Amino acid sequence: MSQSQTKTGGWRENKWIRAAIPALLLHCSIGTVYCWSIFSQEIADYIGYTKGATEWAFSFAIFFLGMSAAFLGNIVEKDIHKSSLIATICFATGMFLTGFFIKYGGAHQHSPLALIGIYISYGFIMGVGLGTGYLSPVKTLMLWFQDRKGLATGLAVAGFGAAKAIASPIMQSMLENLGEGGIYKMFMILAGVYFVMMFVGHLLLAKPADWHEPQNSADKPKIMDVLKTKPITNYVGIWVMFYINITCGLALISQEKMIVKCIGLAASVGVISTISAIFNAGGRLGFSAWADTMKDRNTIYKLIFILSIAFTALVMITGGIKNGEGNSLLVFLVLALIFLVNAGYGGGFSNVPTLLSDHYGMGSISAIHGITLSAWAFAGLTGNQVATYIVNHTGEFIEHGTDAAGKAIMINPVGYQNVLYFTIALYIVALVLCLVLVKPTSKEK
Q1: Which CATH number covers residue 363?
Q2: pTM here?
Q3: How far separated are the first and last CA of the chain, in Å rounded?
Q4: Cα–Cα distance between 385 and 285 in angstroms, integer?
Q5: Which among 191, 212, 233 is the end of a domain?
Q6: How far apart are CA 349 and CA 163, in angstroms?
């Protein structure tokens, strides 16, 4: 787009109004899926099920996020207005229905219908909204910000990461102030709020006027033909290292709250959770903007994996999690690992679409990015579940004080420490793939 077009086009040709702001409205809404830990126990208690039973709703949400992105990527490619509207309707409807089934479960304790309804609403319906909503603004941002694609996508994806830091205290306040049934009321109220935010984003979102998608499917090469323009092992390497980064991130982040209690910072769990969310969002923006300055964007992944391996090894060697309480140096190392993994987890998300565009061009980037997000789907089913299995089957749970309600807090320092053996092994595999399979490439302009 020429400078004269930008000056004369008004708001309709303004990249901030047509790309950046709608992307933030969409991603700051759907990113609240990561607030699950704020209210998961409340849902379980209200409907009469264990936290483990309700936990699958979050896993299903992440799974269907990835799978809907993979299967609906072509719709996003052809018509971002249709895809962003699908995202708005599905996300808001799923959230409202989650509230409805929580209310039903409160009136009918231990009801399988309530639990299944939550799985379908939060997991499947919201999951479809998550996948299409996540994808819809990404290509548009890269088209508007051709010279700073990493910064642009990082800005939007940072909104996804920052949503937890923004929404968590709001949700916590709603739970405390809405009285009886506050958990389902919160979902129903927020469904309306996020519908408005996402619908405004949907109305504003638009590709540059000088970019025209091929209307005839015959004019656009098939995805496999695009992927085969490079050795197929190149794409396999990107997919697997993306999957590993998410899996390791989820494995540690899912145990973050209890790890913090292990090192004697139980009173600061909320503050540390907010700081880690800021690192998550900062990593999405910082790593992707940094990658814009590099000849090969894959260098960012090498840095993420090397740093993750180094800090994980330090905490393993020192036994930081099981020996950290009362030791300032070990506490520092454990917190540094938590914050670094959060930053690298976020950075992996924001860099993958631009890395793919560098390798395969912009023509089919939404579809290719969508297929790649299937890695997120499978990581959502493995990362936190494997970590939970390791914690439940190794080490020993011990009593570590009481919570505000006077209930004993049970922790497993050895189990949390053992999770690091799983993550460091995967990080090493990811680094090898990054170095061997993903070939250097010049940036696609």
Answers
A1: 1.20.1250.20
A2: 0.82
A3: 13
A4: 28
A5: 212
A6: 15
